[in-house]
Amino acid sequence: MATLNVKNLPDSLYRKLQARAKRERRSVARELTQILVEALETPKPLSILELKGLGRDVWPGGNAARHVRRERDTWD
């Protein structure tokens, strides 16, 4: 595994990184690795089974199937 040294990192940025690592219960190195993973790796596509219930927090009490039918009915 590679080692990365960061030079001239502003103290204020390092303190923010430390605070974030503490909130996430990670070391500073692990938190920085997580940030880089999130920024640089391509997210794995979700399967249709993993999408089940997606959007319920956005449309509480909504009916996704009815919405899709209504949207499809407007297509030419």
Word description of this protein:
With 76 residues, this protein is mainly α. 47% of the residues lie in helices and 0% in strands. The chain has one domain. α1 (11-23) crosses α2. It is elongated, with a radius of gyration of 21 Å.
Task: Tag the structure with descriptive keywords.
single chain, mainly alpha, 3 helices
Quick overview of this protein structure:
The chain contains 3 helices and no strands. With 76 residues, it is an all-alpha fold.
Number of helices: 3
Unreliable spans: none
Number of separate strands? 0
Q: Fraction of residues in helices?
A: 40-55%
CA-atom Rg in angstroms: 21 Å
Give the number of domains: 1
**Percent of residues in β-strands:** under 5%
Let me know the average pLDDT. 86
Shape: elongated
Order of helices and strands: HHH
Question: What topology emerges from the helices and strands here?
Answer:
Layout: H1 11-23, H2 28-40, H3 64-73
